[in-house]
Amino acid sequence: LPDDIAAVLRRPPVTAPVTDPDADAATRADDRGHVFHSWSAQSRIDPVPVAGGLGVRFFDDAGRSYLDFGSQLVNLNLGHGHPDLVAAIKTQADRLATIQPSFASDVRGTLARLIVERAGAGFSHVFFTNGGTEANEHALRMARLHTGRHKVLSTYRSYHGATAGSITLTGEPRRWGSEPGIPGVVHFSGPYPYRSPFHATSPEQETERALAHLSDVVTFEGPHTVAAIVLETVVGTNGVLVPPPGYLEGVRELCDRWGILLVADEVMVGFGRLGSWFGIQRFGATPDLITFAKGVNSGYVPLGGVVIPPAVVETFAERAYPGGLTYSGHPLACAAGVASIGVIERDDVLGHVRRLETEVFAPELTALADRHPVVGEVRGLGAFWAIELVRDRETRTPLVPFNAAGADLAPMLEIGAACRARGVWPFLAGNRIHVAPPLISTADEIREGLAAIDAALSEADAKL
Ligand code: PLP
C-alpha cells in the first residue's frame, strides 16, 4: 500500500497513554482539513485526536488518559477494547465480512433470537438498522402501516435521531434547524417533577396531570388519527428524566383504550444501562415496539433495530414491508452484538449495575448534592444519572439557559474543562452533568470520576 495509507493502517494498538506529536499533528490536520462534524459550527471546533482506548479509559496522542465517564455517547456499555467483542468481529471478518439482508446469516438470526428472548413475552422478530435514528424511522413507518393512521405523538423534551422522521419526533431545539420536518408529528409535555410543566407538587400529582394532558392532546388530535406515541423510557440527553410512578403504565392504558401503538425508544437505555435488558422492564408497562442501538454491541460496529410483536409481523405476512437497508443486520455488527449479550450474561453485568445503583451512584450522588449549592437535583437509575445545576436552589434558575444557541455557556464549559484537567471526560448537556460510565466500571473507577466532578463543582460553587 502507498506509504501514507500504510502508516495509518499499521499503527499498533494503543492501550496506555502515548506521546506521538507527529500522529497528533497529522490527525488534527486531516480532521480540520476534511472532516465535516455533526452539530457543530465547523470553524469553532478543535476535536481531540484519540489514539486508542482500553476498558473505561481512552488515550490521546499527547500523553493524556481520560476516564470515559459518558461512555462516549452513552453507547460504550462494555468499555473500550473488550477482548470478546474484538475477537468476535475479527473471527466474523475472516469468515464473512458482509452479506446483503435477503440472505439468512447465522449471526443475524442468533442475535435476533437472543434479543427477542430478552425482550420477553409479546415480541417475536427484530428489524435491524444501522443505528438509533433509522430504528425510529422504521418504528414510525411500521406503526403507520399497521394502524392505518398517520399521526405520531412524542414529547418536547426528547431526542430521537437526526434523519427526517426522527428529527421531527425530536422535541428539543435540535429539531428547529430541520423544520418543517415530516407531516403528522405532534408534540406534548412529558413529566419532569423537578420543573413540572403542570405545576405539580408531588411525583404522584405529576403523573396524574401529565396523563390528563396527554389524554387531552389525543382527544383533540382525534384518537382515530393517532398511530403511535413514541417515548424514551427514561429521557436521555434531555435530562435523564425518570418517569414518575404510574406514568408509563398510564400511557399504556391510554394507548390500549384507543388502539394506539406505544413505541419505547430504548436507544440509550437498552441492553443494561438501567440494570435490566430493556429499561422498560424496570417499570410496569410493555410497549408494542422497542427501538434500540448503542448498547446492543457497545457501538463497535454501527447497529440498531426495532423489536416487533407478532401482530405487526402479521400485518406484513402477505404484504411486503416497504423498507430496507443494504447493511440491515450486518454480520460484523451482529457478531459484536451476540458477543456483547454473551458477556453481559456471563459477567452478570445487569446485577453489577443494580449493585452500583444502590451502593455507589445513589448514595455518592446524594452526598454530592448535599455538599454543593450549585446542584439543584440528582436523579437516575442503574448506571444512568444526571446532576442538574442551578444558579439558585430556591428559584431553580438553571446554571445556563435552556436554549443554548447564543447563550452564555461559560459555567458549563468551565466545569467540563475542570473535569478533563483531572483526567475525566464528562458528558455535559444543557445545565447538567450526565453520569453514564461504562457498565463494567468498578466502584473505585466511579468514585474516581465523581471525585473530579466534586472538585469541578467546588469551583462552580465559588463563582455563584
Ligand atoms: N434515540 C435516543 C433516545 C438517542 O439517545 C439517540 C442518540 O443519542 C438516538 C435515538 C439516535 O441514535 P443514533 O445516533 O444511533 O442515530
From TrEMBL:
Q: Which Pfam families does the record associate with it?
A: Aminotran_3
Record's keyword terms, sorted: Aminotransferase, Pyridoxal phosphate, Transferase
Q: Is Transferase one of the keywords UniProt gives this record?
A: yes
Which GO cellular component term is one of those annotated? Answer: cytosol
Q: Which GO terms describe its molecular function?
A: pyridoxal phosphate binding; transaminase activity
Q: Which family does it belong to?
A: Belongs to the class-III pyridoxal-phosphate-dependent aminotransferase family.
Name-wise, this protein is: Aminotransferase
**Taxonomic lineage of the native organism:** Bacteria, Bacillati, Actinomycetota, Actinomycetes, Nakamurellales
